[in-house]
Design goal:
It is a single chain. The chain is α+β, with helices and mostly antiparallel strands. Strands 2-1-6-5-4-3 form a six-stranded mixed β-sheet. A hairpin with a 4-residue loop joins strand 3 and strand 4. The chain is globular and about 50 Å long. It starts with a helix and ends in a 6-residue tail after the last helix.
Length: 148
């Protein structure tokens, strides 16, 4: 597998998030892609494409101007993997959102799609922020205001 192909697929994944549509976020995934949200202390289930879409798409409207910046990239051609240290920013009802990630993407045989997506998040920040954001979303759906 070529370095350029693996890097291109990884860049397509990042651009999918920066475009911030359900289609763009699903476009780089292989049909049997599994998404892991780690560390395991977060107790997040493994997500196939259907479960990932069901989990992720409903929270997308809560984020405005979502942007991922990649700070470092390592490509392992023999293993068909790309590892990235990244961060993201956005605005939500709660205010600014800033997270850090280590992303490890395991590609298909031809390198054109992601078959395993390992997303290591800042666990303390993510657990707190996402709980509060989901509470706000639930309250808004009930018509109870912005939940601040």
């Amino acid at each position: 597998m070529s370095h350029a192909t693996l890097l291109s697929t990884a860049q397509m994944a990042i651009e999918g998030y920066n475009t911030w549509t359900p289609e763009s976020i699903m476009s780089f995934r292989a049909p049997d892609c599994i998404h892991y949200i780690l560390p395991s202390s977060l107790n997040r289930p493994l997500l196939d494409n259907e479960k990932f879409a069901a989990y992720f798409v409903p929270i997308m409207p809560a984020f405005k101007d979502f942007h991922v910046t990649v700070h470092d990239t390592i490509v392992d051609e023999a293993a068909r993997k790309v590892a990235m240290r990244a961060s993201s920013t956005a605005t939500t009802t709660l205010g600014p959102y800033n997270n850090e990630y280590t992303l490890v993407l395991h590609m298909t045989e031809d390198g054109s799609k992601v078959e395993k997506f390992y997303e290591f998040v800042d666990s303390a920040y993510s657990a707190d922020y996402m709980k509060r954001l989901r509470d706000v979303i639930a309250n808004q759906q009930k018509g109870e205001g912005d939940g601040r």
